[in-house]
Amino acid sequence: MDIPRTGARRKKIIRGIVVGVVLLAAIPAVFVALSRLKPAAPSVEMSTLWPDTVKRGPILLEVRGLGTLVPEDTMLIPATTDGRVQRILIKPGTPVKADSVVMILTSQELDTALLSAEYALKAAEADYANLKVTLEKNKIDLQATAAQVGADYSTAKLKADRDSALSKEGLFSGVDAKISGVAADELKGRYDLEQKRLAINSEAEEAQLAAQQVKVEQLRADYNLKKSQVDQLKVRAGVEGMLQQLPAPVEEGQKVAAGTPLAKVSQPSKLKAELKIAETQVKDIAIGQPATIDTRNGLIEGHVSRIDPSILNGTVTVDVALKGPLPAAARPDLSVDGTIQLAKLNDVVYVGRPVFGQQDSTVQLFKVEPDGQYANKVKVAFGRSSVNTIEIKSGLQVGDKVILSDMSAYDSYDRIRLN
Length: 419
Known about the structure:
CATH architecture of the largest domain: Beta Barrel
Order of helices and strands: HEEEEEEEHHEEEEEEEEEEEEEE
Number of strands: 21
Radius of gyration: 53 Å
Strand content: 25-35%
Shape: rod-shaped
CATH class of the largest domain: Mainly Beta
Largest sheet: 6 strands, antiparallel, barrel
Strand order of the largest sheet: 3-12-15-14-13-16
């Protein structure tokens, strides 16, 4: 006989309510737990990475920059007068002598001015010659007059002396003797005046000739200037060297003004390197520091000779004076790489310079675990840096293996799997 159970329905309802409450309470906890789970470590091919091992020892602090070879001495050839380029005789890249004619200019104005100056000079020289002849004739006339007065005076003096002597002996009238003496004195005065006229005439002659000579010299200087300007229409190199092309080359038929650069001459055997160094790295560079220039066809030793005080496009120009013979391929405007040695650190912990590793910065690197299966992200503080190496202040120990490649794609991961 079946016995009916009492309260079973109620117990079943209560059990369902309890299970539902438990499930509702468990769901948020599950979601929180799942959200806190770290993503699985991504796999990375080790062959595509750039690893390095932390070491201790000496390193060289160096900075590197790109640059070009430039001549130590360059002479710019300007146009000395206005003109038009008629003919270019020597092209850039050709060796030249000091008297080599690089190009020929023309100027109708200068040719006309030279012809006018030449005729003016010839006219002045003719005037000088004419004045000289005229003054010489005047001088001869004065000398003849003075000579005639002198002769008349001598005759009158002899006559006066004779009449005075006869008068004393009573053989000649005393009045006539005095008249003869007065006549002689008058001629003496005239003779003295003629001598003074000769002396003054000589001074006047010299003054007139000097004034005319100054005019001649002035016109001769103007003629020589015009002639020199015409001669300079044949543009010469001025020094021995190699003809270089200007950034804006001059072409035949082009009209140029006085002072316009026409060409430049350099000595290819005397070159220096101009390096462009980042402004953040130039603070430790000093005059005299050793440097090495790579011409891609040989290395050249040198030293820092000049540091430009200005900054252009984030770089500073540093000049390097070169030592020893230059490679055969060395020539002006050749692109080169330069490395400047700043200092030598004897005992430091260092590693290869990572892609984003800067001096005195803190970055995160992946350090490879001893078994080589995984790499974990660690914070590393850097110190002084060189071209290929950088000092480690903290975060790594000697023997640690780190990845120096660009790992920005894994910034959201603290661990990666290495395959």
